[in-house]
Design brief:
The protein has 291 residues and is of the alpha/beta class. Helix content is 37%, strand content 13%. A 7-stranded mixed sheet has the order 3-4-2-5-1-6-7, sandwiched between helices. α1 packs across α12. The two termini are 32 Å apart.
Length: 291
């Protein structure tokens, strides 16, 4: 089955890459007012699954549909900040806000070149955060305290987590209303999902009863390979309707856009990958995960 779904007769439903009937998601209407934000953590302890790419392009796509979006770079590598063309040296970062919760988070918010999309950047200093926070009271809730102070200004807050299940990721899950799991269409990417789901359930049980799994997003999908198709089929078999209908294909345009410091929706707006992220934004709105 390819990205261009096929059907043999007019009466049969058109199937998408997930093997389910292909739905169209309408363009969401403009909002009359903004806020309070729904916080979504993008998590996967495996690196290289398209988590930061999804954070950048989903944020830009939601902004294109008139949503006010705040992206939080919560990875010491600072890839989200770099991918949005934001310098992170000698500027306030999320690390400064975690260490000084009395500081106004607005001091660290940077306007990006994308209208409606703001960023709180990160740099390598964030790697020391777990050491500093480990002895703090309610250490799992520090990010939640920071984000509550700016939630009224935005419709969506996306937190790009580091590839780990440590204290920073637990902070993100404790602050979030929902979790989006980018999952590469590759066998080894499947192996760690059970542990991630278990961590999400523990946080929901012990720290954040309001936490929901918004869904799993298949990334780096190549319909030409049997392996990629089989992995996507396995993901759908295991997680059912929790798997987004939108699937992100593999393309060299993503690193090109990252080097340019732009979302792919601006770097190559007509490219199928850009259209896929716009579709994901519409699907999130249709599912009720975003206003």
């Amino acid at each position: 089955m390819t990205e261009k779904a096929k059907t043999s007769t007019k009466d049969e439903p058109v199937l998408g890459p997930t093997g389910r009937p292909y739905q169209g998601f309408p363009t969401p209407p403009k909002l009359d007012r903004h806020g309070p934000a729904r916080i979504i953590a993008l998590c996967n302890q495996k690196g290289g699954v398209g988590k930061t790419t999804t954070s950048i392009n989903l944020a830009a796509s939601l902004a294109e549909y008139g949503r006010k979006v705040l992206a939080i770079d919560f990875d010491p590598q600072g890839a989200l900040s770099a991918g949005l063309g934001v310098q992170t040296h000698d500027v306030p970062t999320i690390y400064d806000l975690l260490l000084d919760t009395k500081r106004d988070p607005r001091e660290a918010i940077v306007r990006t070149a994308t209208e409606g999309l703001d960023l709180i950047p990160a740099n390598i200093d964030l790697s020391a955060a777990e050491v500093h926070l480990v002895n703090e009271v309610a250490r799992e809730s520090i990010l939640s305290h920071v984000l509550r102070r700016v939630a009224a200004d935005y419709d969506v807050i996306l937190v790009d987590c580091q590839p780990s299940l440590g204290l920073l990721t637990v902070n993100a899950l404790t602050a979030a209303h929902g979790v989006l799991i980018p999952l590469e269409c590759e066998f080894f990417a499947l192996r760690g999902v059970a542990l991630l789901i278990e961590t999400i359930e523990k946080v929901k049980d012990r720290l954040n009863p309001a936490l929901d799994l918004d869904g799993l997003l298949a990334t780096m999908y190549d319909p030409r390979t049997l392996h990629s198709r089989e992995v996507l089929e396995r993901i759908v078999e295991t997680f059912g309707e929790k798997v987004f209908e939108t699937v992100i294909g593999r393309t060299v345009k993503f690193p090109d856009a990252s080097v340019a410091g732009q979302p792919i929706t601006e770097y190559a707006p007509e490219h199928p990958a850009a259209q896929a992220y716009l579709r994901l934004a519409r699907e999130l709105v249709a599912r009720g995960a975003v206003a």
